[in-house]
């Protein structure tokens, strides 16, 4: 179960989180920060979530946190796509 | 800092070991080719026999560009790329963005001119989706192959990039898990060699090299996965959210200088004067020029300069194409400076070490070599702890074959390149073919040898002799001789000398008695 969480689930959640940042981050003075920061830092988001899943003692808590991040990111992405 | 539980350490050790074991050979290939590719420009210049002319962007660019661009249909004036090759030819590429029916992707289409910068003679003219055909725009098939091998393991796009992106993530995971499970990081930076205890000593060497390279491992994994995954995965996803899926529009906002549309025909300003002014302002030579809307009132000229002394990032100057007025220095991303642009600018120098000339590149090569050793020694440790099983003994042999076979194959590709040049054959076909021949030849000794130590000696000797003979083959196949190279072609001499020294070191290593002394039995930790 932990391998599923650390593999496809972490990959999907980190990509959703990356996309959601494009919606919520300020664009900055040059109007590009909301794109460039997630574009560059996407691998770091994956690494942080992956290591978290490895270190988390309670698998249930790990699932809950990843589902929460994924769900919140999905809502933001959907709002970005709609608007 | 809170101590990790046994379960946490166990999980991270499993991640560290299995990720390295399952993907280690591919990771090793990416690291070794990347280490060599740090000196890609120098290898290119060496392999084509040095620069035949002075900097092709320094003089007569204006005349040469006018010669080939002005007779063309106006559609091709949308965008013109201008750069110099390692051989010193001037490349001029007027193009449009069009969908390539073969790939379904938007690509640059147009006539590509290879010119003699001094005379303005067109040496070659090819037309089509240029960047799928390296023989049109590259001077050295060897440089092109080595970079392609590093960037996408010679697999088709985008799959190769996705694979190397995953390998970059693996490298980060191995690096981070290594840091977290490391209990004595500072002490391990100075760990000594313990004679006689085979596993402990092997682990010490692995830990020593890994400790010094921990930050570097993370840095390379991070920047490498960015360069592989940004164009294939992240960029399209972000374009979907922020630009309704229009990747062209997003690329324009990020990378193109903005100008209000004004299609009035106007004469272009003098490119040579602009390049000279830009060089003085930036403090370094121009590396790449792009002219948009050539001959229109809204024309913009972007000039990218290599990092000047004291700076990490390339300098991007923008001029008005019709008046020649300097419009300012723009970040590589966006129109005005921003934290995002600063972050983006740092990715290239952090990945390649290309910011302080040979010195920074040499550090990157040294740490890259250490990383390659860490991957190989890590796989060996993993296998040795399980060597009572035949599968893992075979895996250990496979590590030897890959560890030495890959450099043999790379060397073989260099031989194929020079022999093809000498024979007048297509070097862009023969260089990868030579690599594949080298893979087969490199594997053969590993498949037939009985004694592991003799096999390693043989590989070292083979590589040593191969490296020493390469400059001779280069010269025998029409390459620049040392007397001629001494007249201002320092790169050619330097690379030849480096190859000979490396070859001699490998031969000395192969012959050194006691270097591969049989291990004494010792229990695993």
Show the helix and strand layout:
The complex is a heterodimer of chains A (83) and B (525).
Chain A: H1 2-24, H2 33-55, H3 59-82
Chain B: H1 6-37, H2 40-47, H3 61-69, E1 79-84, E2 90-99, E3 106-115, E4 122-129, H4 134-137, H5 141-152, H6 159-181, H7 185-188, H8 198-243, H9 247-255, H10 271-282, E5 286-292, E6 300-305, E7 315-320, E8 326-330, H11 339-352, H12 357-384, H13 390-423, H14 427-448, H15 452-476, H16 482-485, H17 490-511
Antiparallel strand pairs in B: 1-2, 1-5, 2-3, 3-4, 5-6, 6-7, 7-8
List descriptors.
heterodimer; A: 83 residues; mainly alpha; B: alpha+beta; 3 domains; 17 helices; 59% helix; globular; disordered C terminus
Question: Can you tell me about this structure?
Answer:
The complex is a heterodimer of chains A (83) and B (525). Chain A has 83 residues and is mostly helical. Chain A has helices spanning 2-24, 33-55, 59-82. Chain A has one domain (2-82). The termini of chain A are far apart. Chain B has 525 residues and is an alpha+beta fold. Chain B folds into 3 domains: 1-48 and 140-252 and 352-385, no CATH class; 61-139, no CATH class; 390-525, no CATH class. Chain B has helices spanning 6-37, 40-47, 61-69, 134-137, 141-152, 159-181, 185-188, 198-243, 247-255, 271-282, 339-352, 357-384, 390-423, 427-448, 452-476, 482-485, 490-511, and strands at residues 79-84, 90-99, 106-115, 122-129, 286-292, 300-305, 315-320, 326-330. Chain A binds chain B through residues 2, 6, 15, 18-20, 22-23, 28-40, 42-44, 46-47, 50-51, 54-55, 57, 77, 80-81, and chain B through 4-5, 7-8, 11-12, 15, 165, 168-169, 172-173, 176-177, 180, 221-222, 225-226, 229-230, 233-235, 237-238, 240-242, 250, 253-254, 331, 333-341, 343-344, 347.
């Amino acid at each position: 179960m932990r391998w599923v969480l650390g593999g496809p689930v972490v990959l999907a959640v980190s990509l959703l989180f990356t996309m959601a940042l494009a919606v919520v981050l300020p664009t900055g003075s040059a109007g590009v920060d909301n794109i460039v920061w997630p574009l560059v830092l996407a691998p770091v988001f994956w690494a942080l979530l992956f290591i978290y899943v490895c270190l988390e003692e309670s698998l249930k808590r790990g699932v809950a946190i990843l589902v929460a991040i994924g769900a919140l990111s999905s809502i933001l992405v959907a709002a970005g796509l709609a608007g | 800092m809170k101590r990790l539980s046994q379960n946490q350490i166990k999980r991270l050790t499993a991640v560290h070991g299995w990720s390295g074991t399952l993907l280690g050979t591919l990771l090793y290939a990416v690291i070794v080719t990347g280490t060599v590719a740090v000196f890609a420009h120098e290898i290119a210049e060496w392999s084509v026999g040095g620069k035949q002319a002075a900097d092709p962007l320094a003089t007569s660019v204006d005349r040469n560009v006018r010669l080939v661009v002005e007779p063309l249909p106006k559609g091709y004036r949308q965008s013109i790329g201008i750069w110099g090759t390692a051989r010193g030819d001037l490349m001029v590429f007027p193009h449009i963005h069009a969908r390539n029916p073969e790939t379904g992707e938007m690509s640059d289409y147009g006539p590509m001119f290879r010119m003699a910068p001094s005379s303005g003679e067109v040496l070659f003219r090819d037309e089509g989706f240029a960047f799928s055909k390296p023989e049109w725009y590259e001077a050295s098939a060897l440089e092109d192959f080595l970079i392609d091998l590093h960037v996408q393991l010679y697999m088709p796009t985008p799959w190769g990039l996705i694979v190397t992106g995953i390998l970059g993530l693996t490298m980060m995971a191995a690096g981070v898990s290594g840091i977290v499970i490391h209990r004595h990081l500072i002490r391990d930076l100075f760990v000594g060699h313990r004679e006689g205890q085979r596993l402990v000593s092997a682990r010490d060497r692995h830990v020593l090299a890994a400790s010094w390279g921990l930050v570097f491992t993370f840095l390379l994994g991070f920047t490498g996965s960015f360069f592989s995954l940004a164009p294939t995965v992240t960029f399209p996803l972000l374009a979907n959210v922020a630009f309704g899926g229009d990747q062209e529009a997003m690329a324009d906002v990020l990378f193109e200088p903005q100008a209000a549309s004004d299609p009035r025909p106007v004469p272009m300003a003098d490119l040579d004067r602009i390049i000279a002014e830009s060089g003085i302002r930036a403090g370094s030579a121009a590396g790449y020029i792009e002219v948009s809307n050539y001959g229109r009132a809204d024309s913009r000229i972007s000039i990218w300069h290599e990092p000047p002394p004291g700076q990490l990032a390339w300098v991007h100057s923008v001029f008005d194409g019709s008046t020649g007025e300097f419009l300012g220095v723009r970040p590589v991303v966006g129109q005005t400076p921003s934290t995002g642009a600063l972050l983006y600018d740092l990715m290239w120098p952090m990945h390649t070490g290309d910011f302080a000339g040979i010195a920074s590149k040499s550090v990157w090569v040294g740490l890259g070599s250490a990383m390659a050793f860490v991957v190989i020694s890590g796989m060996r440790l993993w296998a040795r702890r399980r060597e009572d099983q035949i599968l893992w003994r075979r895996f250990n042999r496979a590590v030897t074959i890959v560890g030495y076979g890959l450099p043999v194959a790379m060397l073989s590709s260099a031989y194929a390149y020079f022999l093809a040049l000498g024979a007048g054959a297509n070097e862009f076909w023969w260089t990868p073919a030579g690599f594949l021949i080298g893979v087969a030849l490199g594997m053969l000794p590993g498949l037939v040898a009985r004694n592991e130590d003799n096999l390693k000696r043989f590989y070292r000797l083979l590589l040593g002799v191969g490296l020493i003979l390469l400059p001779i083959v280069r010269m025998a196949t029409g390459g620049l001789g040392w007397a001629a190279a001494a007249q201002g072609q320092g790169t050619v001499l330097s690379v030849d000398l480096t190859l000979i020294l490396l070859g001699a070191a490998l031969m000395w290593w192969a012959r050194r008695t006691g270097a591969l002394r049989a291990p004494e039995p010792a229990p695993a930790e």
